[in-house]
Amino acid sequence: GGPAEADRAVAAGAAGVGLFRTEFLFAERQAPPDEAEQLAAYAAVVAAFAPHPVTIRLLDVGGDKPLPYLPIPPEANPFLGRRAIRLADTQADLFTTQLRAAYRAAAGGPVKVMAPMVADAADAATLLALAERARRELDAAGLARGEVELGVMLEIPGAILVLDSYARRLRFASLGTNDLLQYTLAADRGDPGLARFQDPLHPALLRIIALAVEAAAGSGLELSVCGEMAGDPVAARCLVGLGIRELSMAAASLGPVRRAIRASIAADLAARAQAALDDPDPAAVRGRFPS
Fold first, then answer.
1. Closest CA to 182 of 80, 35, 88
2. pLDDT of 97-123, one tens digit each?
3. Is-above-0.70 flag for pTM?
4. Which of 23, 61, 226, 248 is most buried, by CB atoms within 10 Å?
């Protein structure tokens, strides 16, 4: 969510922010926001949710969301091109400034930072190097900062397949199920003609999530879900059955999802979710989790 959603989320009983999008700070302007502006935005949300953590996602833009001050050559398929953390090779200062602001905001409460569009261990290493640079610069300048937990968004199937190769260097990961679904099934999530591939309860996605749960557990990595899937009471019960224990959703979904999970039995959800991995389609999966 964004800053405007903070009050509603707190009132609804949210235990922190699982996904704080930062793109609103960078859009519709001719130059990127400076550190002070970003710090003000992050610190306000951190203060609203303290002592619960706020998870800040680093800038996620690409050729589909061009910024006038961030030149990206035209790409045939920007969703598979130079975007998000892949821009760090040429735009390291942009991400370092974000991280500096996040570390300074952490002086007021718990903060997590995650990198989007991570594909492998090299991308995770890029995040860690940027964070080290931000800490070093702040300490050299004598600016107060807190500690920040570093993690990644898992929205590329390959990142899950090799998760064990870099998980122990991170504190957490969050499954971005919106993009993970479209990358798993090679189906544009915005194309109405591909509706049958856009249901997050597709067994292929459930199997990918199950792999992520297994790899995270084996590496001691905290794992959550931050996609529209988490806000669907039926899908949320399936996620809990697969082993997910942290869900991030819009404030309006908190009540319905909480009620659905509280009315369920964990062992029953686990048995249903395990069986769903062998189902032929999303409709069959939904049939296992009646409303």
1. 80
2. 999 999 999 999 999 999 999 999 999
3. yes
4. 226
Residue 144 sits in the same domain as residue 4: yes
Domain that holds residue 126: 1-153
First to last CA, the chain: 26
Q: Are 127 and 115 in contact (CB under 8 A)?
A: yes
Q: Which residue has the tokens 């959703």?
A: 249
Same domain, 49 and 113: yes
Residues 140 and 6 in one domain: yes
| Full DSSP string of 125-156 | HHHHHHHHHHHHHHHHHT-----EEEEEEE-S
- List, for residues 118-150, the tens digit of each pLDDT value: 999 999 999 999 999 999 999 999 999 999 999
Contacts of 197 (CB under 8 A, 6+ apart): 181, 182, 185, 187
8 Å CB contact between 17 and 57: no
Read off the CATH number of the domain in which 248 is found. 3.20.20.60
C-alpha dist (Å) from residue 213 to 11, 56, 64, 163, 286: 30, 22, 31, 10, 21
The SS3 call for residue 67 is: strand
Distance in angstroms (rounded) separating the CA atoms of residues 103 and 138: 9
